[in-house]
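Interim report, section 4.2 (structural modelling).
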Amino acid sequence: MTAVTEKVPERPPVKGTEDSGLLRFVKKPIVARLLFPTLVIALWVFVDSLEISRVFPAPDRVLGFMWDELRLETLARTNLYETLGISLLRLFAGFAVSMVVGTAIGLGMGLSKSVDAFFHDWVMAILAMPALVWALFLGLVFGFGSTGPVLATILAGIPFVIINVREGVRNTPRELFDMASAFDVPRNRMTRHLLIPSLMPFMFAAARYGFSVGWKGLVLAEVFASDRGMGWMIKFWYDAHRSFAVVGYAFFFVIFAFFLEKFVFDKLYARAFKWRPAVGAIELVEEEIQESFIDALDPEGAQTLPDRDRLGDN
Amino acid sequence: MTAVQERHEEPTKSAEEQRLEAAARKEKQLKWFWRIMGYITVLGVWEFAIADILGLATGRTLDENLLPGPLRIVETFPDIVASGRFFTSFGATLTRIGVGFGIALILGTAIGLLTQIKWFENFFRDFQTVGLTAPGLVWALVGLIIWGFKPMGWIFPIVMVTFALVSVNIAEGVRSLPKDLIDMAKAFGTPQLRRQREIVIPHLAPFIFTAIRFGFSIGWKVTVLTEVFSSNEGIGFEMRVASQLFRLDEFFTWVLSFFVFALFLEKVVLQYFERRFFHWRQEVATA
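Predicted structure of the assembly:
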């Protein structure tokens, strides 16, 4: 729980307030949230108006560039959608391979201590290796094709998959397996009803990390080891000395990653664990009890509880 | 009767213990055997077979200049030290990590502490999300294009990539603050500053340490990345030069020497300080 009643003495009561209209407006959570981007944009416009440098990316030019890209008007050899398509194809190919191979190795490591000892140190080494190294090296070995970026995606993502699956296998409820074998449950039913459901959260974490880390690895590899794709494109604009285009593409990156996190993975998560209301429900119940408890103690404090979606966020 | 049983129990118990001990020892031996097998297999494949495998995959012959084995890398290491750039490069990169990550640590801790107030949690939320999701490449290029080779050109990307990790970790600790202690302190009229110093900071200390370790592991990678684009010294710069000259033996030697050094700092030095720092705290030390 956050320090719920922080500054309670100074805080005026929320309902039947004596605040002036402006202060009450500023205190709204949504205003607090929107205030930050607004301030950043204001600062950006202000610095631009000083005209200290000709290469400084002006807000209007960045927006103009982004709008042109969205309307397929571009000077580069592939437009935004083609570029995104190429990168996504590579990302999915690399992601699929790292999920399959990573799950196999992770299962082996979770089930057998010998396999674990065999792979452990090397998985950790690959995990700690910067994606930049793969990008530079694969570019030299495979030239400017799709092989380098796809391999970079695999190498960046696979350690996360392996480690998560291994943890998942180690966390399977042993007593349930014992009970199932005592009641002569067939092996394939055991796999379907016990192993897979208990692995699911870990597989999901594996997919999420593998995907986001793989995306970063892919982008970097495209800069050094490709002649197409999102990473190459940002390098292209950089080489063309168009700072507004670099910043514009950076925005596309952020928007894409944000979209992936918020809409794809959060939705998938909600769907994959729909059958499992227990975990979330218990937490929610606890939250509610605490909330009403705090509510009873001090009415203002209840307002400052962290909301649910934030907790699962990072 | 009971006496006899007791006397019998004593040796059987120790026999059981012996058996368990032997099993544990055997398991440990087996583990080490497979671990060493792992090293031999990976290094062996790398030294003798990987060039052929990649050669088949690409349809080109890869000589040992393009894909040096581990022996060649060990041989190159003294050359790099002798070249005189070794210590200056390490020094340059470490200085950058120190400055960039130091700023990120202060900024991230400040933001993390401010999230005690709900309003600031909302205020900084998108800042953190953007910091966590945007690739380091984006910040490196944006920093470079705005500031060029000036210090801000590399400080900016390092800070942008690592501050969010720090602040998110500390915000995690803020969420688990001992509310009862704070309430009590408030009830006794303890001033805000003292509350922060004597309740909040000690509670957050383990989270701050996790943040440092976590942030450092990301921070040195971003630093090397920025050096590739916007520097004329440091590990990243040496990596770029070596790869542009197709000197992969030097490339791997630079990478691996710094890689080993960074892992040493992360796993040995930082963890040593963490353990020493929390010596007095049972629950943290055992966790």
